[in-house]
Design goal:
single chain; alpha/beta; six-stranded mixed beta sheet; three-stranded antiparallel beta sheet; flat
Amino acid sequence: MSIPVFKPFMRDGDRYLTATDAFCVATYGHRVITTPNMKFIPQPFDNESDIIQARADGRYWALDPFQWPQMYDDLYARSFAIPRQEAYADDASMMYAWFRPTFSSDFTPISPSNLFGQLKTDIVGHLKRLYKKANTQVNKYKVARSHKEDHVVGWVHAMCAVHERFQQAMAWRDIIIIIAEYQCRFLDIWAVLDYYEIIEPRMRFIDTTHKVDPKWMGCFTEDVAIATKVHAAGVPVWLIRDARLVNPNMNIVKVVSLTPPDDLVIGMYHDPIKFFAQPFDIIIRGPNNRRHHEAACQPYSNFEKLPVPKPQVDQLVTRESLVGRARVDKGKAKMSAKLAPYNATAPRQNKAVSGRDKWSDIDHPYMPPMNSFFKIALEDANKDFLRIKHPRDKMDDGYSLPDPGLFVNILSPQSLVKPRPLPHTQNWNDFLISQHAQEPSNMQTSGKTSKSKAATALLFQKEVPALRALWAGPTNVHWRGKDIAISTLNNPPADLARQIVYEICEQSFRYELLDLDEHLGCDARKDKEARKERAELLHSIFLSKSLKVWNRDLPQQNDGLNAPSFDAALPYFESFRKVLSAWEHFPESLKQPFDATGREHDIWKGMKECCLFYVQSYFDNTGRPPIVPHLLYLVA
């Protein structure tokens, strides 16, 4: 299905924007997103693989209705009235509704290198002012309309109870979650009051269209009637429609690209002292529907029952009593085990354990867009497992580099920098256990552990300072001529992340193409001269004339197979066609060279068929889809 190309347009004598017109318009897959009252279009997230999981700041990233617009739902209609952080940038009284605490500056541990402690007094005071602000507004609301939404009164009492907990010692991990829920409860109270006092009366009468108020979060919808009511109430709204249902005569002020959630924290929680990942539990998985809203709005811990960290859960399991268990004879169990016969239809690497579909990209702001020809090929390829060759005829199906779909979810300092290993003797262990702690000057040596640590300090008194510096590791990483502070990589800049993922995608495609050509194109490498010609042909597919990406500058624009025009991409697709022509089952329809003077439709069809043949050949010989080219630069 072809996607229409939009341009600014105004109907003769009618410059009024209805709910189905577009102050902004953008395409999203086979759908079109328009808004009649906002100057940007946020990127929607509505996929089967979406997960509701608290991130490092206790929020749910772009799937959090308190941070990003969500799909409209009747039961959660008030969510479009949640305040937007940008609209209150100059309001100091609201600043702490989006405050993100940091371990180093906002937390006082009960002892050095301890994860238990309290929030600093000034932070607790600022959070208390949020409670007072909410309480003042709710008291006014009770006087005017006490018969509606009485549960907001309970929310204020809950905020008060949580504030009292801030004065107690808690784990840092729990403090992050509780602050996030405290802030969400405040924002929810604000949204309810605005909804029932301002928005609901407006939605009853759609004869008058109110000026949009950008302080509200807004919502997505696929229903024109809902878009009309929300637009008339002055609420930001983004209408999603199938491209075939869009009125070609609609008013369009400007065409834009989707705005990704670059400012939101996407990284998982890491222990702030030992720097190991300790992500929060996944609450729910699925598309943006009512269950999604319920999961995102329910209290994560109910302010009382906090989630147990996974290491503690593992300890509880390992400590389980073995009393009363039946004894298992390992020898008999081994003899009774049967070897599974080879089954060509058994599931392989097409789907990860997590259920991610590897035939399509993860919908993620760090994932560069896929080359459209290869995207169509991945959709159209025959995925029947019976096509996969027998293991003796297959190519190695492992990844040359990390799977980009996994990499975008674990991008963090720990994925880029790893501590160097140290020996494993008891003295070294004593050093490693205490290497983060500051030893007191009057250290007592009465206990066994203290004596062992004292002996370690004496034994390695010259080496310890150097080893501490070694363990601390570098503070910067080097990336394409730039020094980047590791401390910034918990929530890395979006452009940097996309460049890293693009490089992995591009390098993986080139390595996999080379591997598959060596497997299928062996007849074209019979002697030294033929191998040289084959290598030159492979290199000619890429503008850089190289199969390496690591030591090359990033392109200034999409080039090679990713070139934006047929004329620019044609010579590279011709080289690609010549490489594929030496493989088995090469289609007859591709045996004629691409003709630059031919019809554009025929050229497009040939390029598409080349990509489909490559993807199908890779699957038949490995049992998994290939990594395909991605675009470094977005195309509006």
